[in-house]
Amino acid sequence: MGLLFNDTNEIKTKVKENFGDNKNFLVAMKHNDTKTGLGKLVLSNLLYTMDSARTFILYFSPKGIFEKEISNSSKGNFTLLPANEIEDFEIKEKPNKTIINFLHLGKKISYEIPYKGKIFIDNEKNLQILKANNWNII
C-alpha cells in the first residue's frame, strides 16, 4: 500500500488483524484549520501539499483512538491516543464529509472524513455506527 495505491480491502484487513472487527474505523485525511493551512501555505507550497494529503486509519475503542498513517505504507503499528487524554471531542457534519476535532494533551487534532473516493467508501456507514455507539469512548 502506498500513497497512490491504498486499497479498501487492505485497509479492512489491517484493521481486522489488529482489532478483530472492521466497523469501528474511519479513513481520514489530515485537516488543517484556516489559520494553520494559511501559515503552512505561506511557508511552503510543498509542505502544505504533503501535510494536507496525509491519510490515516482511525479506530475507535473504549481505550481511545488508535491512529495509523497510511500515506506511504500500511506497514507499522497503530498509535493509541488514550481516551483519558482526549478532550473537547466534536464533529462538524457537511454534505460530503465530516470534520472531527479534539484536543490531545492540549494540542488541537483535526481530521477530515470524506465520503467519496475508493478508500473512503465505508466512511459514511461507519460514521453512523460510531455515532450510534457514542464513538465507543465518549
Largest sheet: 7 strands, antiparallel
Specify Rg, calculated over alpha carbons: 15 Å
Broad shape: globular
| Average predicted local confidence, pLDDT | 83
What is the H/E string?
A: HEHHEEEEEEH
State the total count of DSSP E strands. Answer: 7
Separation of the first and last Cα atoms: 32 Å
Helix run count: 4
Strand content: 25-35%
Q: Which class of secondary structure composition applies to the elements? A: alpha+beta
* Percent helix range: 25-40%
What topology, given as strand order, has the largest sheet?
4-3-2-1-7-6-5
User: Low-confidence parts lasting 5 or more residues at pLDDT below 50?
Assistant: 37-41, 45-51
Brief synopsis:
By secondary structure, the protein is of the alpha+beta class. About 30% of the residues lie in helices and about 35% in strands.
Describe this protein's structure.
A 7-stranded antiparallel beta sheet has the order 4-3-2-1-7-6-5. The longest helix has 12 residues. It has 4 helices and 7 strands, in the order H-E-H-H-E-E-E-E-E-E-H. It is globular.
Keywords for this entry:
34% strand; alpha+beta; 138 residues
Topology:
Layout: H1 8-19, E1 25-30, H2 34-43, H3 45-52, E2 55-61, E3 64-69, E4 79-82, E5 86-93, E6 97-104, E7 107-114, H4 123-132
Antiparallel strand pairs: 1-2, 1-7, 2-3, 3-4, 5-6, 6-7
